[in-house]
């Protein structure tokens, strides 16, 4: 299974593409889609869309895993990040890719085993689980890989649940 993990944003959208087979990971690509600060929001969203469309076309992922929106106090920033998240969801829908959404707590639980883990702990586990020489930079790229790992670890449960639901429907 090829998973595209996305850490959405409007200035920087992190992505991590991993292949997961037989409980083993292989990183296919990792990085960020950056947009220029002076560019209008619509132009930034177009750049994110084009970047994601390119990645989807190149790697043909089976699933997209996206972090759910989380914000503390800055509503304006949350709305802009929400726009970036919407672009990611739309890119997946256009390509016919199933989207799975995870909270930051779920990602930390799946990667570290503790939902209140610190960012540094998550990054260290991403490095270890994916057999990387160093932690990917910037943080958005490492976060996207963590989201992909979360989906890989969760996909078995999702598949078992789907089998049970479908078995009950003739």
Describe this structure in words.
- The chain is an alpha/beta fold and 170 residues long.
- It has one domain: Nucleotidyltransferase, domain 5, CATH 3.30.420.
- Helix content is 52%, strand content 22%.
- The protein contains 5 helices and 5 strands.
- The protein has a 5-stranded mixed beta sheet.
SSE layout and pairings?
Layout: E1 2-7, E2 12-21, E3 24-34, H1 41-59, E4 63-67, H2 75-95, E5 98-102, H3 104-112, H4 119-129, H5 139-167
Parallel strand pairs: 1-4, 4-5
Antiparallel strand pairs: 1-2, 2-3
Distance between the termini: 27 Å
Number of structural domains: 1
Structural class assignment: alpha/beta
Number of helices: 5
Report the top-level CATH class.
Alpha Beta
Instruction: Enter the CATH topology name.
Output: Nucleotidyltransferase, domain 5
């Amino acid at each position: 299974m090829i998973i595209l993990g996305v850490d959405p944003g409007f200035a920087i959208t992190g992505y991590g593409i991993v292949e997961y087979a037989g409980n083993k990971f292989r990183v296919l690509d990792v990085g960020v889609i950056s947009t220029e600060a002076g560019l209008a929001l619509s132009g930034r969203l177009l750049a994110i869309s084009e970047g994601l469309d390119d990645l989807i076309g190149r790697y043909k992922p089976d699933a997209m895993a996206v972090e759910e929106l989380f914000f503390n106090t800055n509503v304006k920033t949350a709305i802009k990040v929400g726009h970036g998240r919407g672009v990611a969801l739309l890119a997946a829908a256009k390509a016919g890719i199933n989207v799975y959404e995870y909270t930051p707590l779920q990602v930390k639980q799946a990667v570290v085993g503790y939902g209140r883990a610190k960012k540094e702990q998550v990054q260290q586990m991403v490095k270890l689980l994916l057999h990387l020489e160093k932690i990917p930079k910037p943080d958005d790229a490492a976060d996207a890989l963590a989201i992909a790992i979360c989906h890989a670890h969760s996909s078995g449960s999702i598949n078992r649940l789907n089998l049970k639901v479908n078995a009950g429907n003739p």
